[in-house]
Q: What sequence folds into this?
């Protein structure tokens, strides 16, 4: 399917989704947000796709909300009700990513700002090119973190670093991002997509249902007591054990061969 501000390619079991609004560093316009909802919703349901890479075209990953439409109404003195857009846009997109039943890899090729940072945070893995930078950006325009960053950023880098990033909105370079646990790895820019695809290929060969359930379990356990988490693990383990991949994994171990997982 063709999109205006998104490029979607599927190679084998891996889909690569590229944000494509390069003159604005892939700022999240309403069009792009809607297209991402459509494309990622479809890829999430496509059983042949077992891992997804999210990246940006050009020199940005995503500069966050597209501010280009804000100037005219603000100059006229109009005051925005941003919650309306948030509820229809990011508040659907972020749960779609966070609840994806297959792994997501963010290949961060350039700046990730504001809601663009949130997109990366909602992925399971973040691999940065060595020129990538990160900024919360919100405080520079008098806003608070949204698109899930109030939740995801402290859980990723810890409260102290999250508050520093959110209040100062300084640009964090790729190696510093690695140092605070914001990204899983930093690679030369020219090999970023090979590295991200390589990781996605590896993830796509793993038992997809168990990976999706693992993410869900971690998310749910964050709000539970240990006793509740133990009960939930038992329930979810029944779901994982009902998959063909579980049987294959155990038989492969016993037969001393590599498992061939099908994502079923
Ligand atoms: O309802 C709602 O939408 C509220 C939701 C809010 C969620 C958010 O994400 S709020 C945060 C929004 N994002 C920002 O405030 C970031 C704004 N951009 C920047 O601070 C800088 O551009 C960057 C740090 C991201 C990158 O800096 P740099 O020096 O590498 O690039 P640049 O020259 O500033 O930008 C290049 C072009 O992209 C430039 O256009 P031009 O001058 O070449 O025609 C710039 O205006 C444009 N651009 C960058 N970010 C945005 C943008 N255009 C629209 N919206 C943007 N967010």
A:
């Amino acid at each position: 399917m063709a999109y205006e501000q998104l490029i979607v390619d599927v190679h084998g079991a891996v889909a690569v989704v590229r944000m494509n609004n390069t003159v604005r560093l892939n700022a999240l316009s309403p069009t792009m947000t809607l297209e991402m909802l459509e494309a990622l919703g479809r890829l999430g349901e496509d059983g042949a796709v077992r891992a997804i890479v999210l990246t940006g075209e050009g020199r940005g990953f995503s500069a966050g909300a597209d501010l280009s439409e804000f100037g005219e109404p603000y100059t006229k003195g109009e005051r925005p009700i941003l919650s309306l857009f948030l509820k229809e846009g990011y508040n659907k997109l972020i749960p779609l990513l966070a609840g994806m039943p297959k792994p997501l890899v963010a290949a961060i090729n350039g700046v990730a700002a504001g809601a663009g940072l949130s997109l990366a945070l909602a992925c399971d893995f973040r691999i940065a090119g060595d020129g990538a930078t990160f900024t919360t950006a919100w405080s520079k325009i008098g806003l608070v973190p949204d698109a899930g960053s109030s939740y995801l950023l402290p859980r990723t880098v810890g409260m102290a670093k999250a508050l520093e990033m959110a209040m100062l909105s300084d640009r964090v370079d790729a190696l510093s991002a690695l140092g605070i646990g914001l990204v899983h790895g930093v690679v030369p820019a020219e090999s970023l997509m090979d590295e991200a695809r390589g990781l996605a290929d590896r993830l796509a060969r793993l038992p997809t249902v168990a990976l999706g359930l693992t993410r869900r379990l971690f998310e749910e356990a964050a709000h539970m007591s240990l006793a509740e988490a133990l009960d939930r693990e038992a329930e979810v383990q029944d779901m994982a054990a009902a998959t063909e991949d579980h049987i294959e994994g155990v038989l492969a171990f016993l037969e001393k061969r590599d498992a061939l997982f099908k994502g079923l």
